[in-house]
Amino acid sequence: MATAKILCHDDYAVGWICALPVEMAAAKLMLDEIHDPLPHPRADQNNYILGNIGEHNIVIASLPSGAYGTVSAATVAMQVLSSFPSIRFGLMVGIGGGVPSNEVDIRLGDIVVSRPTDTSGGVIQYDLGKILSDGHFQRTGMLNRPPKALLTALSTLQAHHLTEDSRVPEFTSSAQAKATGRKAATFTRPTQIDRLYQAEYDHGDCATCINCDQSKLCIRSSRGHNDPEIYYGLIASANQVVKDGQRRGQLAQELGVYCVEMEAAGLMNDFPCLVIRGICDYSDSHKNKEWQGYAAMVAAAYAKELLLVVPIDQIDNTPTARDTLAENGKRQEMKTVKLSAPDEEHTALAFNSGGGAQTNNVNGGSGQQINNNAQVGTQNFHSVTFKHKEDFSFRGPVGVHLGQVRSIASELFVGRGNELDEIGKALHPDPKAHKQRRLVLGGMGGIGKTQLAIAYAESGRGSYTSVFWLNAVSEAALKDSFRLIASIIFNVKEPGVLEDKEIVRRVHQWLSTPKNTGWLLIFDNYDDPDQFRIDNYYPPASYGAIVVTSRRPDLVAGSPLHIKPFQNIEDSLAILQTRSKRENVQSDPNAKRLAERLAGLPLALATAGTFLHRSKFTFERYLHEYERRWNINPRSPVKLNEYEERTLYTTWDISYSRLENQDPEAAKMLKLLAYFDNQTLWYELFYAGLTDSSPEWLSEVITDDVNFDGVMGVLAEYYFLDTQQTSGSWSMHNCVHDWTLAALNKDIDATDYWYAFDCISASINDSDKNDFAKLSYSPLAAHATRLVQQRLCQNDVIYDIAPRRLGQASLISDLLREQVLLLAAEQMYQRALAGQEKALGPDHTSTLDTVHNLGILYDSKAS
């Protein structure tokens, strides 16, 4: 619960950075008190949790969902320092891959803390260096050391642990007690055996290590306890995931590191901090996510123990991070001034604090300065500024940014090896053919097109320097995606100040820069080509790669790759096993029959597996229920055009029936969600629409955010929703969303519709009209568009707007117009006008205002 403390931004002195939702959740559980949130600038896209540990006021910030790597971490850190100017230092706390060796017996659940040496600041960016004339790669540059206050606390804590036990187990147990019910299991030490395989032995195709050769295990003696050991040493960081035992061994031998991860190198020179990592895997092909929650928890517990030995007066006497960075910038500027003028042959890109890059000379003829992973020239140079300038120049590659895409854990992604190979072949650059590579992934909804595209992007097969996911479900959503890209690649405070066409043009210009050829764009869910032409949004460059996912691939230009249901029964059984978490699925004849009946459809298999995980149904009983509902399904739409579509609807119907019996509030909430957009659903949106006349069940769910999260969590567990924890929101698959309206709302529910209307209208602030065109209003506009969905607008029960809502209808129309959703705005204006003429008369000022706004809209459409 939030306390009644009234604090301001200047009261917070410690920044705590996380990369994953589970890390942020663990950090939150370590707080002694949680403070009320504070407003922050629209340009600051971070998600914050405020609180205190002892006397220290702490800002917990997380990377955006889908973003990772050193550049993303630097961007988050800079936004923290901009919004909270009194931050003295930071902690980068979370999970990492262990690097065991003959010298160090690191195990799962242990803790690694970065500690400087004579030649390193504690973190090594192992992919930063230069190619020498003989072709060898030489690492260059040294990242900064942690601030003195943290190093002093580190020494103090190490001394304590020589004579006293660490308090990590104590803090871990206390935090686990706070996470009640199902959530507690996330942070509990797994019962899974800690297995370390020989470095040269690779993992097979199975989702778990159940079929791995046990003779390839490394023999290690028992510790006799389960408490984490704490190691102090070097941490390796880069923009790539290490999933290879031999590569891990190479890093251990060459660098002497204890841990590998992906964010710390982006912070050390831009955010004075210490890095703390809980070990969740061994950086090899056997890695999975079973240990992530516990590893995040022990790392957070160590961070708490460390902060408690930092005296408050020592923090007060430490310069702010901004002052420290400004001083470092002056020193670097003095060094940079001595560099000769850049020439074409020795020009490199130097990343700045905001995640961009600037052209900088590489002086000295020993080789070309490069980033070994991205294969783009970079130099260990960081400029620091807190004044945003509207700079749209090329500022270097930015890594992988997947936005709010619906993605699944890597261990849940099954099969598709052949398809991944086909994608790689289609997009592999041909040095002789100077043209853009384009691939269209076609197939029915729920077949796994999006997950396949994301898996390819994350696999590193294409060695792309910049990867972006774009939402192509509508032209408005696609323009929003371009605005998000602009906010990432350019040093701009608010890209919303520019018109959509200009944003797209400048992003295209960035993608068409000759030095920027290694990018990949994923245009996802382009299922309605009749509405707009997607090729208008392709960059006019003769390089780069584009992937489009579509249910209508025949209408999209590009090399087609049709995604079919799983052909191998083993893949279908693997999904049932990973989702149901049951053993011996591969040998269960009823599981095999069910897998065959579900026709290799990933979404249907995942839904069935998730249901089986939550219920006591046997595979045989589920199959019987499935067969019964296949033929008699009162909730199915009148027409089911495809066998596969009927398969999906039947699995959802089984889950929904269980919800109605086991958790009726969750069932009602799922039905209600048909009246909202499916991309971004957040608590405050639903709370805004509550009134005294709201249904009792809805009031009970919405009044308390804990109840709301519980109900939404149940829907996520049934695979109806996905969590976007870093943004505190939820989303729904397009196919599920279509089903909620077509099947659960055959008869339009006026109460649910008008509640959705009230939620949206109450979330719009009339005084913010000048901001309606900005990106921050885009999610609300998407929900407003749902209010004029074709089937809803044809219903007489909800078409007429009550007089008390007419003003809000006009406001919603204004928002839609400013977001350039002109057709939706026109429909809402017309509904408002019909209501005003009926209730107020044609000559009333409000009626005339709507007529005037309609005229402006028609003029906009004409131009």
UniProtKB/TrEMBL annotation:
Biased composition (Polar residues): 358-369
Molecular functions (GO terms): ADP binding; catalytic activity
Residues covered by region (Disordered): 349-369
UniProt xrefs under SUPFAM superfamilies: P-loop containing nucleoside triphosphate hydrolases, Purine and uridine phosphorylases
GO biological process terms held by the UniProt record: nucleoside metabolic process
Domain (Nucleoside phosphorylase): residue spans on this chain: 15-291
Stored InterPro entries: Apaf_helical, NLR-like, Nucleoside_phosphorylase_d, Nucleoside_phosphorylase_sf, P-loop_NTPase, TPR-like_helical_dom_sf
Pfam families reported for this sequence: PNP_UDP_1
Alphabetized PANTHER family for the sequence: AAA+ ATPASE DOMAIN-CONTAINING PROTEIN-RELATED (PTHR46082:SF11), ATP/GTP-BINDING PROTEIN-RELATED (PTHR46082)
Protein name per the record: Nucleoside phosphorylase domain-containing protein
Organism placement in taxonomy: Eukaryota, Fungi, Dikarya, Ascomycota, Pezizomycotina
